[in-house]
Amino acid sequence: xxxxxxxxxxxxxxxxxxxxxxxxxxxxxxxxxxxxxxxxxxxxxxxxxxxxxxxxxxxxxxxxxxxxxxxxxxxxxxxxxxxxxxxxxxxxxxxxxxxxxxxxxxxxxxxxxxxxxxxxxxxxxxxxxxxxxxxxxxxxxxxxxxxxxxxxxxxxxxxxxxxxxxxxxxxxxxxxxxxxxxxxxxxxxxxxxxxxxxxxxxxxxxxxxxxxxxxxxxxxxxxxxxxxxxxxxxxxxxxxxxxxxxxxxxxxxxxxxxxxxxxxxxxxxxxxxxxxxxxxxxxxxxxxxxxxxxxxxxxxxxxxxxxxxxxxxxxxxxxxxxxxxxxxxxxxxxxxxxxxxxxxxxxxxxxxxxxxxxxxxxxxxxxxxxxxxxxxxxxxxxxxxxxxxxxxxxxxxxxxxxxxxxxxxxxxxxxxxxxxx
Amino acid sequence: xxxxxxxxxxxxxxxxxxxxxxxxxxxxxxxxxxxxxxxxxxxxxxxxxxxxxxxxxxxxxxxxxxxxxxxxxxxxxxxxxxxxxxxxxxxxxxxxxxxxxxxxxxxxxxxxxxxxxxxxxxxxxxxxxxxxxxxxxxxxxxxxxxxxxxxxxxxxxxxxxxxxxxxxxxxxxxxxxxxxxxxxxxxxxxxxxxxxxxxxxxxxxxxxxxxxxxxxxxxxxxxxxxxxxxxxxxxxxxxxxxxxxxxxxxxxxxxxxxxxxxxxxxxxxxxxxxxxxxxxxxxxxxxxxxxxxxxxxxxxxxxxxxxxxxxxxxxxxxxxxxxxxxxxxxxxxxxxxxxxxxxxxxxxxxxxxxxxxxxxxxxxxxxxxxxxxxxxxxxxxxxxxxxxxxxxxxxxxxxxxxxxxxxxxxxxxxxxxxxxxxxxxxxxxxxxxxxxxxxxxxxxxxxxxxxxxxxxxxxxxxxxxxxxxxxxxxxxxxxxxxxxxxxxxxxxxxxxxxxxxxxxxxxxxxxxxxxxxxxxxxxxxxxxxxxxxxxxxxxxxxxxxxxxxxxxxxxxxxxxxxxxxxxxxxxxxxxxxxxxxxxxxxxxxxxxxxxxxxxxxxxxxxxxxxxxxxxxxxxxxxxxxxxxxxxxxxxxxxxxxxxxxxxxxxxxxxxxxxxxxxxxxxxxxxxxxxxxxxxxxxxxxxxxxxxxxxxxxxxxxxxxxxxxxxxxxxxxxxxxxxxxxxxxxxxxxxxxxxxxxxxxxxxxxxxxxxx
Amino acid sequence: xxxxxxxxxxxxxxxxxxxxxxxxxxxxxxxxxxxxxxxxxxxxxxxxxxxxxxxxxxxxxxxxxxxxxxxxxxxxxxxxxxxxxxxxxxxxxxxxxxxxxxxxxxxxxxxxxxxxxxxxxxxxxxxxxxxxxxxxxxxxxxxxxxxxxxxxxxxxxxxxxxxxxxxxxxxxxxxxxxxxxxx
Lengths: 421, 755, 183
Ligand SMILES: Cc1cc2nc3c(=O)[nH]c(=O)nc-3n(C[C@H](O)[C@H](O)[C@H](O)COP(=O)(O)O)c2cc1C
Ligand code: SF4
Ligand code: FES
Prior knowledge:
By secondary structure, chain A is an alpha/beta fold.
């Protein structure tokens, strides 16, 4: 497999001239000017799925844009990456911002968008500055502005630095944040494709998704398909964190197994540590166990054992941390980041956290296990947006997979593990 | 139209209705919080969950939020029979992980939506054993009490305040479980509609602070349907009293007037009835009284003696029944009756009624496509302003002409919602004639509402208003025009009285034909001092009935304590010509109603007077066009006697004296101390634009002397239109001037030139 | 607070959007970058620029974590306590840091050199436990010892008066509003 998104990573952020010298912006020659229908079709053939976590077919989402959609049409590049354990978009932003711009231009062309917003989480301020500079360079070199490459089509890119909060990554909350409102999600329908920013048609995609687009369009769907293994298409930047020897990010064929990623790429567990489980794609994915290591991590792999690919940010859990403490920490994150709009999320998740803490503190009873399960079951499908379901994915599976531990905590009146060396 | 099924029971719905609306309409009990009839669905509380049965055999049923589901014919929902029941129970349980268990000391208890929903969901035992999230309370001024811990984060308050009432000094703070609703700083709300937060909040987070001071459980209140007497809109209210005192005012739903809300003046202004200086005893200050006489025997003797020389004055703030009864009294003693204090008011009122055509109801205003507003509407009729705000929210074009600071003018400007023209009232007729209405000539504009504030307009301006109405009316465009009149029953006063009644009465006193004056619910020597004060010494006997301690009460020879509208029954006619009855909510022992007063002084019994009234009302309703539960609407064009023939001389050169209006103020509301304490305007000052001040050679802090001898300190305020001298209504009485008169420059002196 | 050029730049930025309020965060950042937090004067200015009221701006500020209405130390250190850092010991790091400053998290250290805040995942999971200094500089693989060393260094930093002279703020009350109260 060829490294695509990370091809320039080792050279550090390239300026326009260096990027160009390394064949940068070349894809645009075979994109801009081509009939948009053909391009969309090519994208459809490639089977590219959104890398933001949900894995929705990108071409399908784009095809929902009405043929007579009123202008202005907006593309929003979602770089709010705040899912714990995920840091792939950050790498593109910090190490090769021009790749992101190249993708944004190509995608905007296909969508006939008039303006693209790149929405960056506030903690990536330094990256936003790099990107801003790169946008300016692209502008100065005629790749942005009016009549790009004599196509009669023009585009502006606006880099929007957000100010924190995980919920801003949810696409409709993001639109509110961008418009200068509190980032509460909007009700769907209407979907952003029909009514998004300021009521106009808006397509929201993850930064990695967008970065793949020009290469698919320039080199063809088949080429993209060939990049994946074990039945998956394309490459993906996997990320590994936790008690491994070399945590980091690795662009690999989509479909690589967890064993390969954790034990080969990331160097395996730290000395004296044993793998007890892992979340395959960020904090809002379901637990997988050591026996699942050989499952290929692509869209269809983890679901066979009740999990999902998510962002491909693998969080490794080892025997130095109590799984209940692990879960409680996840809930700390989610209770803190709930936007506060709907009841099950705002008030239900803290309840879940309270119960988990009771086990750690030794005040839990058998009844609390039932309550915990009941809460997960009732909250999960009944919230306003996908935040709380995501939050509960590791909890529901954790409670199920580590249930014997819960009983043990009740018996021992608390946690007997020495936590987090 | 169609049918859905809730637990197998067929439920009809109208196109566009959501499932929750249809369910509630059908009278089925269902839990919900964030949905509100006026504010719509938010989908945030998740308490209205229902299970939607699948249409295809193999599909699974799913739990949906009924407030977010548009009803579709044939859909089948499970409310109590499916899995959604558990969801609703859980949601209530989540709420109770933070809601305090303080019902025993909560004002809301017993009429609390949260209590009802908790019982309805059967989630009555607690299993959560953790800490509760808590919040500091915020001081929210004299009208509203905040207990922040009780909030259940339904967002209704913020949705009402920001999206409906278009206020921007209250909002949602923080996020997650720390989400809280407050102002950026402690203190009273800017909005004239803040009291509604009490009602839209389904818990005791916001409660009525005035009620709190003299609290009663709401089910122990004596209540009735009443009509607000603080402006001519005539919103329906439900006063609640106990032990002979007023405790609170609650809005009463009237789909044609105020379907949901009332303004703060209506809610809090009524507490004038509890003012500490309210006259609550009969007082005889002059004239020897036989110690064995009862006061009415004494009065009857006085009146018999004065028969033929009696004047009876009421006001446009008093109700139609009062006017009717006083008229009977006048007939009996051959007196002259006027329900208007000043000829100017009568003139403006009659002209305005003539110019009223298809008067728009509040719902009509809300659904118009454009509006033209002449005058400070918020201050003259707050609820009309709230209706106009719905147009602003929908970004409909609006044009407004005003002279004094008006919240509505500020809002239109701030929201870029239209054009605001600041002009001296004496020039309005020209402004109106030259109004550029091109922004309303959009083809989407099918209904225009034209609203005038009668108290600020002179006859030429009202005539210009009529011309404008003609100009705008086209085949495809309907123009509905109406006025915020100068008193709650100004329309009724015009209906019942003869032309020029006020002028006639004043003239009769002037010419000494009348020397005994009965005043009921009017303040000629305060509010009307400009014309009445010079006649004071011609009146030998002054008999006053009132429920506030006015200047006239202070000067009276005999004072009788008058019942307020909440303390008696009556009829009032609003700006649309809608005749509305109101009932006695509670009984205060020491007061009398005008009917009782008249019954005591004439051979008629109260019952007989009521029978006569009914006959008269039936005659009047022969002319009615619209009829509904809540009152009859008079066909204004058919009413005789509303003609205006009186005209006073109008100066044109000089500075115009205008009343500084305030949305919480009013003849009676000024006596409601909590509300009055929010008044931003100061009495005994004259407010001027800096340019006008320059012209007069004064600055802030200097004195201006008036012809009457009074002097006022100057305050420069550039929100006042140039060429205007703006003063509070009370100040107006003090300098013995009428509103809207034009003072030639030589009548106003600065301290310097005097010395 | 702002020069005419800076104001012009902000106005120009706002004009890019169909509605001015979309630029509110940008303006609020501008104020915060200048004086370390958003004070009443800054709020007034952004009110004028965006047409939003004080309350509306505070609705935003209290929602978004990176904006603040109260003074902070000369440096802000956000120590991640999300899962990957937690697994690698961020709790101990936070405890050590808090102990070193002698004040509660979120408060200004006694020397005024730093305010320490727990943070959600910073996207630095491969450097766990990680932190972000002044929202720009990454701090990797913290230990209780290394964080104390870092704090010592911050204490030693020469004291620099900012252009507006208001970067250094002595004390601040714990905001009831943003933190709520636990009983
Ligand atoms: C709570 C929540 C947080 C999210 N955060 C992100 C994010 O940080 N970045 C992202 O690309 N997508 C995020 N998403 C997914 C987006 O809503 C959206 O589906 C995605 O940006 C679409 O892009 P894609 O189709 O390219 O994946 C989040 C979703 C939820 C529910
Ligand atoms: S304060 Fe009342 S109305 Fe507002 S959200 Fe809380 S419970 Fe609802
Ligand atoms: S979990 Fe700490 S940086 Fe991601």
